[in-house]
Design a protein that fits this description.
By secondary structure, the protein is an alpha/beta fold. It has eight helices and twelve strands.
Length: 255
């Protein structure tokens, strides 16, 4: 099975369409979205509608912190109201239908597909939204995941960068920076954690969208980068008249 993994779409219609088209051209048979469907971008309804169609067809969509914020945006005076993640949450909430918000609210925080664990943040405490951005947190994430029967591998989003952590001959995890489009052997006997990057808000200085493709028969993993019309996505954000301009600037510079 070829499993396409997408995360942190952030209401970016242009990036989502480009990644889904690319994944299908690569022979993807199943799709898993790892949360943060909305937030930051201009097309939350479109993205949620695509997710609803995927779930209806038997694919997997889990939830992220921005999805939770869109369902219950912080109110003035709330501690979270001043966070970057909260900016635009109210606008996103208003531009989703009650049915779309209910769909987001119903998303699980963890799922298992094809023998791997999927989680937006860290598997040891998914609801705390911890970033798997170093070897220590990756090890805690992996240790929690592998307590589940049959699970040896974890895919995460949230970080907006593409990284593979694997358990070598020692006790700790080792960090590996993948090259886009280059298949990596990921033997099922070895334990590893991968952060698959962001479809709609890359933050490594490269504006191309990110996703990953796992072949569970050959056990090969490819981290992909996909060009898309990020200028159109940035223009759509500015056209809302409600989002901070730096949300658009992020798409233009990939940071």
């Amino acid at each position: 099975m070829k499993l396409a993994l997408l995360s942190d779409i952030h209401s970016n219609r242009q990036a989502l369409d480009a990644c889904m088209e690319h994944a299908r051209a690569q022979g993807a048979q199943r799709f898993a979205w790892l949360g943060d469907l909305v937030g930051y971008g201009a097309d939350p309804g479109y993205v949620v509608q695509q997710a609803m169609a995927l779930v209806a067809d038997g694919h997997c969509v889990i939830g992220g912190n921005h999805d939770a914020l869109a369902v219950h945006p912080p109110q003035p005076g709330d501690k979270a109201a001043s966070s970057v993640a909260a900016h635009g949450a109210g606008w996103t909430h208003e531009h989703l239908t009650p049915h779309e918000r209910a769909f987001l609210a119903a998303r699980p925080l963890v799922a298992e597909v094809g023998g791997v664990l999927l989680v937006h943040a860290s598997a040891d405490a998914p609801e705390r939204w911890r970033y798997v951005d170093n070897e220590a947190v990756a090890e805690q994430c992996l240790d929690a995941a592998t307590q589940r029967p049959g699970i040896r591998h974890v895919f995460c989003g949230h970080v907006h960068q593409q990284t593979l952590y694997y358990r070598g001959t020692g006790r700790g995890l080792m960090r590996f920076a993948p090259q886009p489009g280059v298949a990596i052997p990921v033997a099922p006997r070895r334990q590893w954690v991968a952060t698959i990057g962001s479809v709609g808000q890359p933050r490594d200085g490269d504006p191309r969208a990110m996703y990953a493709l796992l072949d569970t028969e050959a056990w090969l993993l490819r981290f992909e980068r996909v060009p898309y019309d990020h200028a159109a996505a940035a223009a759509a954000i500015r056209a809302t008249g409600a989002m901070p301009d730096y949300f658009a600037q992020r798409l233009e510079v990939g940071r």
